[in-house]
Write a structure and sequence with these properties.
Largest sheet: 3 strands, mixed
Strand order of the largest sheet: 4-3-5
Distance between the termini: 59 Å
CATH superfamily: Winged helix-like DNA-binding domain superfamily/Winged helix DNA-binding domain
Number of domains: 1
Number of strands: 5
Radius of gyration: 18 Å
Helix content: 25-40%
Length: 129
């Protein structure tokens, strides 16, 4: 039952949530579920291919209910994580293998920049002297 509750909480969240965010969602209805239980189950779901773990540098681990191969964007200002809607470049693995003698099975690309909300907030700031 705990597994289903945790997976349902992830499915409800739209923001590539952290373990803490999933826990907060779960605890609103089931306050006794621990962070360790949520973390363990999220890792298990990712290993089983039911969800994806989003590898980001310099921050908390995030999870994605979208299991097809795709790319992500992370805002350098607010940390927002979004799916990038472009075609997955599967051939890039073959090219890297051929040119470098590697055996690459998959790849992750995370674009970093400033999201529209942060860009707009920055544009609206008035510089005072």
């Amino acid at each position: 039952m705990q597994k289903r509750i945790i997976l349902d909480a992830l499915q409800k969240l739209e923001n590539h949530p952290t373990v803490e965010e999933v826990c907060a969602e779960v605890r609103s209805a089931y306050p006794t579920i621990s962070k360790n239980t949520a973390y363990r189950n999220l890792r298990l779901f990712a290993e089983n291919g039911e969800i994806r773990r989003v590898p980001l540098s310099g921050g908390a681990e995030r999870y994605d209910k979208n299991t097809h191969q795709h790319y992500h964007f992370q805002c350098k200002v607010c940390g927002l994580v979004l799916d990038v809607e472009i075609d997955y470049l599967g051939d890039i693995d073959k090219v890297a293998n051929q040119k470098n003698g590697l055996k690459i099975d998959e790849h992750e690309i995370v674009f970093r920049g400033i999201c529209p909300r942060c860009r707009e907030a920055s544009d609206n700031k008035v510089v005072r002297t």
